Hints:
Two copies of one chain form a homodimer. Chain A is mainly alpha-helical.
Amino acid sequence: MAEGNERRYSGRSVQEWKDARRERLLDAGLALFGSEGYQGTSIERLCSTAKVSTRHFYQEFPNKEAVLLAVHEQGVQLGLGKALEALTTAEESIDVRLVDALRAYLHTIITDPRRGRIAFVEVVGVSPAAELRRREFREAIVAVIEEEGNAAVARGEMPPQDFRHLAIALVGAVNGVIYDWMFEDPRPPAEELEAALSTLALRIFGLA
Amino acid sequence: MAEGNERRYSGRSVQEWKDARRERLLDAGLALFGSEGYQGTSIERLCSTAKVSTRHFYQEFPNKEAVLLAVHEQGVQLGLGKALEALTTAEESIDVRLVDALRAYLHTIITDPRRGRIAFVEVVGVSPAAELRRREFREAIVAVIEEEGNAAVARGEMPPQDFRHLAIALVGAVNGVIYDWMFEDPRPPAEELEAALSTLALRIFGLA
DNA sequence: ACTGTGTGAAAACTCCGATTTTCGCTTGGA
DNA sequence: TCCAAGCGAAAATCGGAGTTTTCACACAGT
Lengths: 208, 208
């Protein structure tokens, strides 16, 4: 005992096994919360589709809500990450930057609408703690938009204004339109969505 | 028997008793869902604060969800009703009409933020059926805004455009900003909110 | 081979809240 | 006065899901 070295089972270390289980649970969470809904999926279901025993479930997460929040965080970071990435390459013009970032964010949901369902519906009103987290995530997104606006003002591209309200409004408007789009049958092509959201973003920022 | 006349208990008819109980349940629903949240309130709690026995509860509603939806519908009709009322008196100018209706709607939530919490949070993701209802309600609001835009086009006040997207965006933006306002401490005065939302509405409609 | 630890599957346990039913009391009409 | 209907409160039933625990097997290291 007192050995610092790790034992390996079937090639993988204990930690790797744990990580793989957690990964599978997150995948199952995305799949089930995104199709059956949060309320509609039991821990047991989560475990069976993830091929993880309930015993190990509780080794990774304290409860179902933690899985939901982890999946949600994944989604937010994915979308925000893509948007930030787009911003690093976009030229210094507020309208271009806004539209590019928006498009990048948008594509993460178009690619996988389950993310949209989770972020817009499943995660809402789950618990006070979850609600708090949700607002924190939204705050992060709002902050990016706000900064972008302030930077544009600093570059003299637009007059100073209250970007916080505008950022919140933009998020609400965009998510609302995307959510609506998700239910259209058949779903209009992404280009249409992009176009609608682009003019929207520009208008909200007073650029059109 | 076979009497078509109704018995009266302590002055009130049986139907009046029923109605009163339903009324109290709706009030309790507004109070509890709006403070403890939907998940956080049990039927028992609902009954005790409404001074209604569980036996009578099931005489009025099939389950807790039905109460939530009824309370939500109340709220939507209240807000939409006020907005429509404002529209009947507003002059024929799209910007005035939009702002007036918005202000009327806004005040129903400022007056009672519990309505906001229920509409924006508690009612979301409760069940597939509830989600459907929610979208129907939103559709009703969107339809009003859309009509308003089309009427403005007919009056030659603005160029034709896709008002559906704009209406959805407006709803999302407005609700988002209001929800954010609800958490500010202290809450900024209503005038500020009105101002922010007014410019927002005008911008989204391309009127500013 | 022998012992430790880790593993998946399943059983067992608990708990809470929804739903149903009972029961004794009050009211109004015959 | 007597009965049927309605009432509030509480008990009893019920079911579902979360959580904990058990168990037999597999693998790695000595």
